[in-house]
Amino acid sequence: MTNRKDMSNTGTGPQRAVAGVIYAVALVLVLLPVYEWVANAMPFYSDPYDLATGLFNLPGRVFVLVGFVLMFYQFVLGIRIPALERVFTRATNLRRHQTLGKIGFLLILLHGLFMLAYDRALAGRFLFDPYRVIGIVALVLLIIAVMAAWHYRALKLPRKVWKPVHMLAYVVFPLGFLHARTLGTELATSWVVNVLFSTLFVLYCVLVVYRIYIAVAGGAGRRAGQPR
Ligand code: HEM
């Protein structure tokens, strides 16, 4: 247990300034795709031509545009990044990981449900083309990953079980990205969203490599410290 205070509240001026910049960037990254979505949605809402699009497709899209960015934040907040821990304590990062993680999960879940409802309303049945199936598989894996961490006490899951199950989230993100690149309207029509999501995906890959590195280095360190 650390007594170190959160530098965003108590640190020096420069540390508070860095915290402020991080908050601002995090907010802008969430708002950018919403702005692009509004540009696409406005003409439709001002001249609606079919109820299903307005009720299911457009809301489902904006839910996931925000949910996907929040999901990216979960990797940043969950992995121990020294530069970030100089500004916010590990406890603060983990608290935000849990809160934003739940919000992101609910938005992505709503996206899946709204898109299923949209297909059902428009085509009269659920559609199972390969890229939709990738989305469905990603959603099922995400539900398992989130439930394992959210309800591990109720489910009586020991850490060595729920933690690896929670790592399924690492599979969900690239699946979600592939699915979005092939189906998403905002990804196809807005270069801003396209560049943003592609950049998040590249950063995700960097974080995965870093995560593997700290796992390997940590394992080697523990083995070296073991009595022979
Ligand atoms: C039941 C599961 C899912 C179904 C049926 C589904 C269906 C769809 C459909 C039909 C689209 C295209 C919407 C449009 O532009 O008209 C779409 C877009 C998208 N989906 Fe999914 N999806 C599911 C799960 C997921 C999951 C789990 C993720 C992320 C982890 C995800 C991320 C995205 C993203 C980012 C877009 C792009 C939105 C845009 O560009 O407007 N989806 N999905």
Would you give an account of this structure?
It is built from 10 helices and no strands. With 228 residues, it is mainly α. The chain has a single domain (7-225), classed as Up-down Bundle (Four Helix Bundle (Hemerythrin (Met), subunit A)). The longest helix has 35 residues, at 191-225. It binds protoporphyrin IX containing FE. Protoporphyrin IX containing FE binds next to helix 3, helix 5, helix 6, helix 8 and helix 9.
Q: Summary?
A:
The protein has a single domain, classed as Four Helix Bundle (Hemerythrin (Met), subunit A) (Up-down Bundle). The protein has helices spanning 7-10, 13-46, 51-78, 82-85, 90-123, 130-150, 159-166, 169-183, 185-189, 191-225. The two termini are 29 Å apart.
- The SS-based structural class is mainly alpha
> Would you identify the regions where 5 or more consecutive residues have pLDDT less than 50?
none
| CATH-defined fold name | Four Helix Bundle (Hemerythrin (Met), subunit A)
Our count of domains comes out at 1
Query: What is the percent of helical residues?
Result: over 70%
What's the gyration radius in Å?
20 Å
| Biggest sheet statistics | none
Strand composition percent = under 5%
Q: Give the name of the CATH architecture.
A: Up-down Bundle
CATH class: Mainly Alpha
User: How many distinct beta strands?
Assistant: 0
Order of helices and strands: HHHHHHHHHH
> What's the helix count?
10
What is the CA–CA distance across the termini?
29 Å
| Ligands bound, unique | protoporphyrin IX containing FE
* Arithmetic mean pLDDT: 92
Shape category = globular
